[in-house]
């Protein structure tokens, strides 16, 4: 969170005015009002997490544990059931599909074989519950943007072998910069006057909604938190087993950084504790160093495992420190015995754009019991890089332009621009660039194999 340092008198004057205005907003709870005022107070005070660069240390394998070093989980069915009965899964479900040209929650975009993100999540947890006879519940943290739609969608899982609970994250008013008055106070009705304050809000929202207490009363000990659009974020018994045996209050999954991830937050050791370092905290002089994959080799996948009693302790016992964190990963520094686990890249498979959709709908992956499994025929551990032009940005347009998704098992990179249309059974290998000339429709015929080619016109095929 960026901050601005005002002198204390000016800051208090602005805050006093804001408190009065926020007190009149009857659309939100007292907890939300307090959380919002705290966040603004921190912004005005300039109290950012200033990092002294010279104090940064690379975490050891003891605190960022290599996944391969984790002990195997118990093979006994009953022991596995006991482990899983201590777990709840929470998916962050506040985002809309607007950037991909869809209406409603992003989690209802069809990913593969007609299944949405949410379908796959439900199938995965259902198959766990069935296989081990356990009861892993699913919680969906919605925003005011996705809440109503999600409630309707969840009804279709009424007969599933899974408990589904929904709750809303906080709703904060947007501020008018000039006079520091909340937009809703100026007569701005409707959703435009409000915003959901980042996924760091998961901890206070769990508490304020009563869901935290409900989970604890059912004997749950850990919650696995992940973005609903990360297809790689599945329950992992090795990690859960490790956390319970070692009494780690918090675990962040990190994975090796590639050039595509240079802006992602990383874990550092700082003054004896693990801490998330994000690009906004980095002094300008060190930004290139931060982006380098030599010094900072890992980044945060936002797959988090957190002890429920520890959340309650930090939320209830006075300090409410978690209220101020706008990213859930930033809270790692408040938990005792916190660790990172350096996981395989397969646990980070987000779908942020149609280029990602092309990957997961292709023969690079198959679907088994709701799990997206990578094709062993691909020998390169990295996925191909895919760049699609604006003509492919919306899911509807993307689907229209492919008669069927090409085979990309042997593809290194694909760059497509202009008015390009793909036939059925197309095979892409090596480095392929397809650039239609302005005003020209370029059709790739059925069954064609393109290997290390640049295509600008039909004659190049």
Automatic annotation (TrEMBL):
Its EC number is 2.7.7.9. GO terms for biological process: callose deposition in cell wall; UDP-alpha-D-glucose metabolic process. The keyword rRNA-binding does not apply. It catalyses: alpha-D-glucose 1-phosphate + UTP + H(+) = UDP-alpha-D-glucose + diphosphate. It is an enzyme of class 2 (transferase). Its main location: cytoplasm. Keywords: Cytoplasm, Nucleotidyltransferase, Transferase. SUPFAM superfamilies: Nucleotide-diphospho-sugar transferases (SSF53448). UTP binds at residues 106, 169, 198, 229, 352. The keyword Lipid metabolism does not apply. It comes from the Eukaryota. Substrate binds at residue 199. It is found in: Cytoplasm. InterPro entries: Nucleotide-diphossugar_trans, UDPGP_fam, UDPGP_trans. GO terms for cellular component: cytoplasm. GO terms for molecular function: UTP:glucose-1-phosphate uridylyltransferase activity. Belongs to the UDPGP type 1 family. Plays a central role as a glucosyl donor in cellular metabolic pathways. This is UTP--glucose-1-phosphate uridylyltransferase. It comes from Ananas comosus var. bracteatus.
